[in-house]
Design goal:
6 strands, alpha/beta
């Protein structure tokens, strides 16, 4: 598997070739973008290797630039060397570029806040016969993603958890207590803004639907949603605006930040009692 710098260099080559072939045809970024149904700004970001195109966009670029499948083949080659699932690879890239990330987690602690033990329990549930090496690699990737919350230029990270996240025991009671303690610590040290939507809130927007809103310095906001072995990046302005409005409704229905922390700390204490570690 190629390392991160090699993959980035390959995507930079992809971008340089895109720019060269686009200019050879006499098209501007805006003109090419219109033909492949993205903005001219996106074409510019593809050329600078800031963003990576979806496969269907790469195919349309081949058609418009008459490049005989070059960009599709290169896209497929690079994706084979990716470290994340196909449906999450682009979201992981955008996560690193985001200036603000607002997450709604209806059932599972978001990846950026997971402890190694909690993440391992999640992977074990889906892959009970996998090797220790597999679990070590996957947990390592998840922890690597979380590094973006530790830097001086970390994004604003706002998380809404449904109370379900606190009550479903993932791993042992000790694992859950440690996980909830970690969430409290991240909140107390101002690494994340966090609220809990309690069971008592009843019906709410996006019931059961994980989502993340990402904002950027020089690109329009994007919404990531996830289903069964699938994910979608949505950047249509009308769709993003609607999701933002629903996120605001979730925030309004959630407990205050202090009440949320009190509920999490209470749940952690319950797990500690179950684990016999109080």
């Amino acid at each position: 598997m190629a390392n991160g710098s090699q993959r980035q260099a390959a995507w930079e080559f992809f971008g340089m070739e895109l720019k060269r072939r686009r200019e050879d045809t006499g098209l501007t970024q805006v003109e090419l973008g219109a033909r492949v149904f993205v903005s001219g700004g996106y074409i510019g970001q593809f050329e600078q290797a800031i963003r990576k195109p979806q496969l269907d966009v790469a195919k349309r670029i081949d058609v418009e630039l008459q490049s005989d499948g070059f960009f599709e083949r290169m896209w497929r080659k690079l994706i084979k060397e990716q470290r994340y699932a196909d449906y999450f690879e682009h979201a992981a890239e955008l996560e690193r570029l985001a200036t603000k990330i607002c997450e709604w987690a209806p059932a599972v602690v978001p990846g950026l806040l997971q402890t190694p033990e909690y993440a391992r329990a999640i992977y074990l549930a889906s892959n009970p016969l996998a090797t220790d090496e597999y679990f070590d690699e996957m947990v390592g990737l998840r922890l690597e993603r979380a590094q973006i919350l530790k830097g001086a230029t970390r994004p604003v990270h706002w998380v809404l958890l449904h109370e379900t996240v606190l009550r479903v025991p993932v791993g042992s009671p000790a694992v859950m207590a440690q996980q909830l303690d970690h969430i409290v610590a991240m909140t107390r040290t101002r690494k994340v803004l966090l609220q809990v939507l309690p069971f008592a809130a009843g019906a709410h927007p996006h019931m059961g639907k994980l989502m993340a809103l990402m904002e950027f310095e020089d690109a329009p906001p994007t919404v990531y949603t996830e289903g069964v072995l699938s994910g979608n990046l949505l950047d249509d302005p009308a769709v993003v605006k609607r999701v933002q409005a629903n996120y605001d409704l979730l925030r309004a229905a959630a407990l205050s930040r202090e009440a949320s922390l009190a509920l999490i700390e209470e749940a952690a204490e319950d797990y500690r009692r179950c684990a016999g570690t109080t």
